[in-house]
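Troubleshooting: if your tokenizer reports a length mismatch, compare your output against this known-good record of 477 residues.
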Amino acid sequence: METSAIRIERDSLGEVAVPAAAYWGAQTQRAIENYPISGLRPHWGYVTAVVWIKRCAALSHGRTGRLDPDRVQAIVAACDEVLAGRWQDQFVVDPFQSGAGTSHHMNVNEVLANLANEAKGVSRGSYHPVHPNDHVNMGQSTNDVIPTAIRLSALSSLKVLDAEMAGLCDALRAQAVTSDHIIKVGRTHLQDALPIRFGQVFTAWASAMERSIRRVKREADDLLDIPLGGSAIGTGVNVESGWTQSVIEELSRITHLDLRAGEPILGTQSQADVAAFSGALRILAIELSRIASDLRLLAMGPCTGIHEVDLPAVQPGSSIMPGKVNPSIPEMVNQVCLQVIGLDSTIAAAAGQAQLELNVMMPLIAHDLLTLLGLLANAVRSFTSRCVVGLRPNAESCAFWVERSGALATALVPRFGYARSAQIAQQALAQGVTIRQWVHQEGLLTDAEASVILDLRRLTEPGVPCYPQEKLDGLAP
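Known-good structure output:
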């Protein structure tokens, strides 16, 4: 944007030089000069949420008769331009800004006022007939608009994450079906344990992801309680009767969310609902990272590791070692999840910084929450399409390792007892043979008995692996 030409605007502190081409005004310009901190811009979803509020507020003021039809129409038209994706370069205030989000809020108010006035042939900066405070912000305050915008933008972003999580869960369950015949060795403490089917592994992972997103959505329900109408400290000063319910209904229509009137004083004081929602996203990230880490371990090798899974090769893995391929997508997921955990910690700390009637850390909460949601949605999308869908369990490696697990001696306990079975496992390990080979060469079990007691498929299901079956009758319940 050409900034060599300027216009002079005035606010309550005096004159401000604003780029002539800018749709923002004096208060935004002061924020630009005061907060050259990160070089970041506000998330577009956050901008959109504030514009939703402004559009619905104007329509509701029109219904109550407080705002005349010409101004209502002008403000709504300006909002619609922004919501159509235009003027994204006009929302410029660094996320690290004045407390509570006044600077971002006024950036939106000023841009909408200038767009509305220019459509009527009035030059930018004149703020007549539409004023950013008197008309665009009528009956509102930063202190109820910004917490409402945080909730609306988070709930909208959750729709994207929810769709990506559904895709991941579907992919995991599809893998469970196609790989249920493959039996692998389980591991506890990173040591050999009993057999488990790959179908069971993928099913457990899918269940973990489904439970995680359900937990997030349970916490999201509280975000539907919005404090709009509370004005400066939640008491509703300068808000006309009937406006709050009207604007909530209008917002519900435009956002497709079942919004409710929250307790306004609580809504300006507390960001606990947002912190709880972020905390549920943290748990999702922890579970997602666990699965990604497991895949990295299962793919280890391929020649010198366990190599129980083949992951899709998405890029060369080394600048010096030809042919090396790394678990690049799971590594990315791990990094994203660590970042999410850090962002959640910041949100929790910021939520605890509220004093008296307001939490002034809301700009930081808004930025980190939307960053967190966007990172998770993008990471899950890539993880699903570029890793989970294309991975293949390695049946040959799984069969090789599962027979070599000393934990198969667990199946001998009903026949020989714990101490004798431990001795058998130690002897087989010392001789470098499998449990199956040892009991055969020592004559401890007949081939028929071994085929039943050491049946790998049976060892992945509940039951007592005993032969013959009649011996079960004498076992203690």
